[in-house]
Amino acid sequence: MELRNVKTFIKVAELDSFSNAGRSLGYAQSTVTLQMKQLEEEMGVPLFERKGRKIRLSQKGYEFLVYANELVKCEAEAIQSISHEDKPAGELQIGILESLSVSEYTNMFKEYMKAYPQVILIVKIATTLELMEMLEKGMLDIIILLDRKVFNSNWEVPFERKEKIVFFCSPQHPMADRQVTLRELSKEKFLLTEKGCNYRQVFEEILAEQRLEVKYGLDIGSTNTIIDYVKDELGISLLPEFNLKRDLQKHAISEILVNDCNIVLYIQVILNRHRWVSPSMKAFLSIFSNYF
Protein backbone atom coordinates (compact mmCIF):
# COMPACT_ATOMS: atom_id res chain seq x y z
CA MET A 1 0.00 0.00 0.00
CA GLU A 2 1.54 3.29 -1.11
CA LEU A 3 1.42 6.04 1.49
CA ARG A 4 0.99 8.55 -1.34
CA ASN A 5 -2.33 6.91 -2.22
CA VAL A 6 -3.38 6.97 1.43
CA LYS A 7 -2.67 10.71 1.65
CA THR A 8 -4.69 11.30 -1.51
CA PHE A 9 -7.56 9.27 -0.03
CA ILE A 10 -7.58 11.51 3.06
CA LYS A 11 -7.76 14.63 0.88
CA VAL A 12 -10.59 13.17 -1.23
CA ALA A 13 -12.47 12.30 1.98
CA GLU A 14 -12.01 15.85 3.23
CA LEU A 15 -13.18 17.53 0.02
CA ASP A 16 -15.68 14.91 -1.27
CA SER A 17 -14.23 15.37 -4.73
CA PHE A 18 -11.54 13.74 -6.88
CA SER A 19 -11.02 16.91 -8.94
CA ASN A 20 -10.77 19.24 -5.92
CA ALA A 21 -8.40 16.84 -4.18
CA GLY A 22 -6.27 16.75 -7.32
CA ARG A 23 -6.10 20.53 -7.49
CA SER A 24 -5.19 20.72 -3.81
CA LEU A 25 -2.39 18.15 -4.18
CA GLY A 26 -1.18 19.21 -7.62
CA TYR A 27 -2.37 16.02 -9.36
CA ALA A 28 -4.47 15.56 -12.48
CA GLN A 29 -7.93 14.15 -11.77
CA SER A 30 -7.02 11.01 -13.71
CA THR A 31 -4.09 10.44 -11.32
CA VAL A 32 -6.38 10.72 -8.30
CA THR A 33 -8.89 8.34 -9.90
CA LEU A 34 -6.13 5.80 -10.58
CA GLN A 35 -4.76 6.06 -7.03
CA MET A 36 -8.21 5.50 -5.52
CA LYS A 37 -8.82 2.54 -7.84
CA GLN A 38 -5.52 0.98 -6.73
CA LEU A 39 -6.42 1.54 -3.09
CA GLU A 40 -9.86 -0.05 -3.48
CA GLU A 41 -8.33 -3.04 -5.25
CA GLU A 42 -5.83 -3.49 -2.41
CA MET A 43 -8.56 -3.20 0.24
CA GLY A 44 -10.94 -5.45 -1.68
CA VAL A 45 -13.94 -3.22 -0.93
CA PRO A 46 -15.38 0.00 -2.39
CA LEU A 47 -14.23 2.99 -0.35
CA PHE A 48 -16.58 5.43 -2.09
CA GLU A 49 -20.21 5.61 -3.09
CA ARG A 50 -20.61 7.17 -6.52
CA LYS A 51 -23.80 8.88 -7.69
CA GLY A 52 -23.23 10.54 -11.03
CA ARG A 53 -20.40 13.00 -10.53
CA LYS A 54 -20.86 13.09 -6.78
CA ILE A 55 -18.86 10.88 -4.43
CA ARG A 56 -18.87 10.24 -0.72
CA LEU A 57 -17.20 7.75 1.58
CA SER A 58 -18.82 4.34 1.92
CA GLN A 59 -19.17 2.79 5.38
CA LYS A 60 -15.91 0.90 4.77
CA GLY A 61 -14.38 4.16 3.57
CA TYR A 62 -15.21 5.83 6.89
CA GLU A 63 -13.69 2.89 8.74
CA PHE A 64 -10.52 3.05 6.65
CA LEU A 65 -10.23 6.83 7.14
CA VAL A 66 -9.39 6.29 10.82
CA TYR A 67 -6.53 3.95 9.89
CA ALA A 68 -5.42 6.20 7.02
CA ASN A 69 -4.92 9.11 9.39
CA GLU A 70 -3.05 6.84 11.78
CA LEU A 71 -0.71 5.71 8.98
CA VAL A 72 0.15 9.30 8.08
CA LYS A 73 0.69 10.18 11.76
CA CYS A 74 2.95 7.14 12.16
CA GLU A 75 5.02 8.25 9.18
CA ALA A 76 5.56 11.68 10.74
CA GLU A 77 6.39 10.11 14.11
CA ALA A 78 8.91 7.72 12.55
CA ILE A 79 10.67 10.48 10.62
CA GLN A 80 11.02 12.69 13.69
CA SER A 81 12.02 9.80 15.95
CA ILE A 82 14.69 8.37 13.65
CA SER A 83 16.13 11.77 12.78
CA HIS A 84 16.18 12.71 16.50
CA GLU A 85 14.38 15.89 15.52
CA ASP A 86 12.46 17.31 18.44
CA LYS A 87 11.71 20.70 16.91
CA PRO A 88 8.12 21.47 15.87
CA ALA A 89 7.65 20.92 12.14
CA GLY A 90 5.14 19.64 9.60
CA GLU A 91 1.38 20.19 9.90
CA LEU A 92 -0.62 20.90 13.04
CA GLN A 93 -4.39 20.58 12.68
CA ILE A 94 -6.49 22.41 15.26
CA GLY A 95 -10.29 22.35 15.48
CA ILE A 96 -12.09 25.22 17.19
CA LEU A 97 -15.57 26.71 17.58
CA GLU A 98 -16.45 29.93 15.75
CA SER A 99 -17.02 31.88 18.99
CA LEU A 100 -13.54 30.92 20.21
CA SER A 101 -11.92 31.69 16.86
CA VAL A 102 -12.94 35.38 17.08
CA SER A 103 -11.79 35.83 20.68
CA GLU A 104 -8.47 36.51 22.39
CA TYR A 105 -7.36 33.05 21.24
CA THR A 106 -6.63 34.43 17.77
CA ASN A 107 -3.57 36.05 19.37
CA MET A 108 -2.48 32.58 20.46
CA PHE A 109 -2.46 31.39 16.85
CA LYS A 110 -0.42 34.44 15.80
CA GLU A 111 2.06 33.83 18.61
CA TYR A 112 2.44 30.19 17.58
CA MET A 113 2.98 31.06 13.91
CA LYS A 114 5.65 33.62 14.80
CA ALA A 115 7.43 31.22 17.17
CA TYR A 116 7.29 28.21 14.81
CA PRO A 117 7.21 29.43 11.19
CA GLN A 118 8.24 25.98 9.98
CA VAL A 119 4.91 24.51 11.16
CA ILE A 120 1.93 24.64 8.81
CA LEU A 121 -0.97 25.56 11.10
CA ILE A 122 -4.36 24.36 9.84
CA VAL A 123 -7.35 25.70 11.79
CA LYS A 124 -10.78 24.20 11.14
CA ILE A 125 -13.93 25.90 12.45
CA ALA A 126 -16.90 23.62 13.09
CA THR A 127 -19.55 22.63 15.64
CA THR A 128 -18.79 20.62 18.77
CA LEU A 129 -20.14 17.38 17.29
CA GLU A 130 -18.20 17.85 14.04
CA LEU A 131 -14.96 18.58 15.90
CA MET A 132 -15.35 15.54 18.17
CA GLU A 133 -16.00 13.34 15.14
CA MET A 134 -12.91 14.68 13.33
CA LEU A 135 -10.77 14.08 16.43
CA GLU A 136 -12.04 10.49 16.67
CA LYS A 137 -11.20 9.90 13.00
CA GLY A 138 -7.70 11.31 13.40
CA MET A 139 -8.42 14.28 11.14
CA LEU A 140 -7.49 16.76 13.89
CA ASP A 141 -4.65 16.80 16.42
CA ILE A 142 -6.28 19.03 19.04
CA ILE A 143 -9.78 20.43 19.47
CA ILE A 144 -10.86 23.42 21.57
CA LEU A 145 -14.48 23.34 22.70
CA LEU A 146 -16.86 25.54 24.66
CA ASP A 147 -19.56 23.23 25.94
CA ARG A 148 -20.83 21.24 28.86
CA LYS A 149 -18.18 18.86 30.17
CA VAL A 150 -17.56 16.12 27.63
CA PHE A 151 -16.12 12.70 28.44
CA ASN A 152 -14.54 10.01 26.33
CA SER A 153 -12.17 7.38 27.72
CA ASN A 154 -9.96 7.87 24.63
CA TRP A 155 -9.47 11.58 25.32
CA GLU A 156 -7.13 13.64 27.44
CA VAL A 157 -8.19 17.12 28.62
CA PRO A 158 -5.05 19.07 29.62
CA PHE A 159 -6.94 22.38 30.02
CA GLU A 160 -10.43 23.11 31.28
CA ARG A 161 -11.99 26.37 32.50
CA LYS A 162 -15.46 27.68 33.32
CA GLU A 163 -16.88 30.38 31.06
CA LYS A 164 -19.97 32.48 31.74
CA ILE A 165 -22.58 33.01 29.03
CA VAL A 166 -23.89 36.59 29.10
CA PHE A 167 -27.23 38.05 27.99
CA PHE A 168 -26.71 41.49 26.46
CA CYS A 169 -28.41 44.37 24.66
CA SER A 170 -27.70 47.89 23.43
CA PRO A 171 -27.20 50.54 26.16
CA GLN A 172 -30.46 52.18 25.01
CA HIS A 173 -32.53 49.05 25.61
CA PRO A 174 -34.95 49.16 28.59
CA MET A 175 -33.32 46.01 30.04
CA ALA A 176 -29.77 47.41 29.97
CA ASP A 177 -27.99 46.65 33.26
CA ARG A 178 -31.30 45.64 34.83
CA GLN A 179 -32.28 42.49 36.69
CA VAL A 180 -35.10 40.65 34.91
CA THR A 181 -36.73 37.22 34.94
CA LEU A 182 -36.47 34.67 32.16
CA ARG A 183 -40.18 35.13 31.46
CA GLU A 184 -39.65 38.88 30.91
CA LEU A 185 -36.61 38.19 28.76
CA SER A 186 -38.50 35.68 26.60
CA LYS A 187 -40.76 38.46 25.28
CA GLU A 188 -37.83 40.15 23.53
CA LYS A 189 -36.59 39.52 19.98
CA PHE A 190 -33.45 37.35 20.00
CA LEU A 191 -30.52 37.35 17.59
CA LEU A 192 -28.89 33.95 17.97
CA THR A 193 -26.13 31.76 16.64
CA GLU A 194 -27.18 28.95 14.32
CA LYS A 195 -29.25 26.03 15.61
CA GLY A 196 -27.10 23.35 17.21
CA CYS A 197 -24.75 25.88 18.82
CA ASN A 198 -24.00 24.66 22.35
CA TYR A 199 -25.03 27.69 24.42
CA ARG A 200 -28.12 28.26 22.28
CA GLN A 201 -29.04 24.61 22.90
CA VAL A 202 -28.61 25.00 26.68
CA PHE A 203 -30.70 28.20 26.61
CA GLU A 204 -33.50 26.49 24.67
CA GLU A 205 -33.48 23.57 27.13
CA ILE A 206 -33.90 26.00 30.05
CA LEU A 207 -36.74 27.74 28.20
CA ALA A 208 -38.46 24.40 27.56
CA GLU A 209 -38.22 23.47 31.25
CA GLN A 210 -40.15 26.65 32.09
CA ARG A 211 -42.53 26.20 29.12
CA LEU A 212 -41.29 29.37 27.47
CA GLU A 213 -40.41 30.28 23.88
CA VAL A 214 -38.61 33.23 22.36
CA LYS A 215 -39.05 35.11 19.12
CA TYR A 216 -36.06 34.84 16.78
CA GLY A 217 -35.11 37.81 14.62
CA LEU A 218 -31.85 36.36 13.30
CA ASP A 219 -30.20 32.95 13.05
CA ILE A 220 -26.55 33.26 11.96
CA GLY A 221 -23.19 31.60 12.54
CA SER A 222 -21.23 34.84 12.97
CA THR A 223 -20.54 36.07 16.50
CA ASN A 224 -19.33 39.49 15.33
CA THR A 225 -22.45 40.03 13.22
CA ILE A 226 -24.67 39.34 16.22
CA ILE A 227 -22.76 41.85 18.36
CA ASP A 228 -23.01 44.52 15.63
CA TYR A 229 -26.75 43.96 15.20
CA VAL A 230 -27.36 44.18 18.95
CA LYS A 231 -25.46 47.49 19.00
CA ASP A 232 -27.82 48.70 16.27
CA GLU A 233 -30.80 47.86 18.52
CA LEU A 234 -32.14 45.06 16.30
CA GLY A 235 -32.58 42.66 19.21
CA ILE A 236 -30.88 41.06 22.22
CA SER A 237 -28.65 38.01 22.43
CA LEU A 238 -26.41 35.79 24.54
CA LEU A 239 -22.74 34.99 23.93
CA PRO A 240 -19.68 33.87 25.89
CA GLU A 241 -18.33 36.62 28.13
CA PHE A 242 -14.91 36.53 26.43
CA ASN A 243 -16.55 37.64 23.16
CA LEU A 244 -18.11 40.66 24.87
CA LYS A 245 -15.48 41.95 27.32
CA ARG A 246 -14.14 44.72 25.10
CA ASP A 247 -17.57 46.07 24.13
CA LEU A 248 -18.84 45.84 27.72
CA GLN A 249 -15.83 47.82 28.94
CA LYS A 250 -16.44 50.48 26.27
CA HIS A 251 -20.17 50.56 27.17
CA ALA A 252 -20.96 49.77 23.53
CA ILE A 253 -23.29 47.04 24.85
CA SER A 254 -24.89 46.36 28.24
CA GLU A 255 -25.39 43.17 30.22
CA ILE A 256 -28.88 41.94 31.10
CA LEU A 257 -28.93 40.30 34.53
CA VAL A 258 -31.32 37.34 34.43
CA ASN A 259 -32.26 36.21 37.94
CA ASP A 260 -33.39 32.69 37.09
CA CYS A 261 -31.08 31.73 34.22
CA ASN A 262 -27.38 31.17 34.81
CA ILE A 263 -25.51 29.45 31.97
CA VAL A 264 -21.94 28.29 32.54
CA LEU A 265 -20.00 26.20 30.03
CA TYR A 266 -16.40 24.97 29.89
CA ILE A 267 -13.53 25.71 27.56
CA GLN A 268 -11.91 22.32 27.04
CA VAL A 269 -8.75 21.49 25.14
CA ILE A 270 -8.89 17.86 24.04
CA LEU A 271 -6.52 15.42 22.36
CA ASN A 272 -6.55 11.67 21.79
CA ARG A 273 -4.61 9.97 24.61
CA HIS A 274 -3.72 7.00 22.35
CA ARG A 275 -2.00 9.09 19.68
CA TRP A 276 1.55 10.37 19.57
CA VAL A 277 1.92 13.91 20.92
CA SER A 278 4.22 15.54 18.39
CA PRO A 279 6.66 18.39 19.17
CA SER A 280 4.29 20.71 17.27
CA MET A 281 1.42 19.71 19.58
CA LYS A 282 3.57 20.09 22.72
CA ALA A 283 4.62 23.57 21.61
CA PHE A 284 1.01 24.56 20.96
CA LEU A 285 -0.13 23.34 24.38
CA SER A 286 2.72 25.25 26.00
CA ILE A 287 1.64 28.51 24.34
CA PHE A 288 -2.01 27.81 25.10
CA SER A 289 -1.19 27.52 28.82
CA ASN A 290 -0.25 31.22 28.80
CA TYR A 291 -3.83 32.09 27.84
CA PHE A 292 -5.42 30.00 30.56
TrEMBL record:
<feature type="domain" description="HTH lysR-type">
    <location>
        <begin position="1"/>
        <end position="58"/>
    </location>
</feature>
<keyword id="KW-0238">DNA-binding</keyword>
<dbReference type="Pfam" id="PF03466">
    <property type="entry name" value="LysR_substrate"/>
</dbReference>
<dbReference type="GO" id="GO:0000976">
    <property type="term" value="F:transcription cis-regulatory region binding"/>
</dbReference>
<dbReference type="InterPro" id="IPR005119">
    <property type="entry name" value="LysR_subst-bd"/>
</dbReference>
<comment type="similarity">
    <text>Belongs to the LysR transcriptional regulatory family.</text>
</comment>
<dbReference type="Pfam" id="PF00126">
    <property type="entry name" value="HTH_1"/>
</dbReference>
<dbReference type="GO" id="GO:0003700">
    <property type="term" value="F:DNA-binding transcription factor activity"/>
</dbReference>
<dbReference type="InterPro" id="IPR000847">
    <property type="entry name" value="LysR_HTH_N"/>
</dbReference>
<dbReference type="InterPro" id="IPR036388">
    <property type="entry name" value="WH-like_DNA-bd_sf"/>
</dbReference>
<dbReference type="InterPro" id="IPR036390">
    <property type="entry name" value="WH_DNA-bd_sf"/>
</dbReference>
<keyword id="KW-0804">Transcription</keyword>
<keyword id="KW-0805">Transcription regulation</keyword>
<protein>
    <submittedName>
        <fullName>HTH-type transcriptional regulator GltR</fullName>
    </submittedName>
</protein>
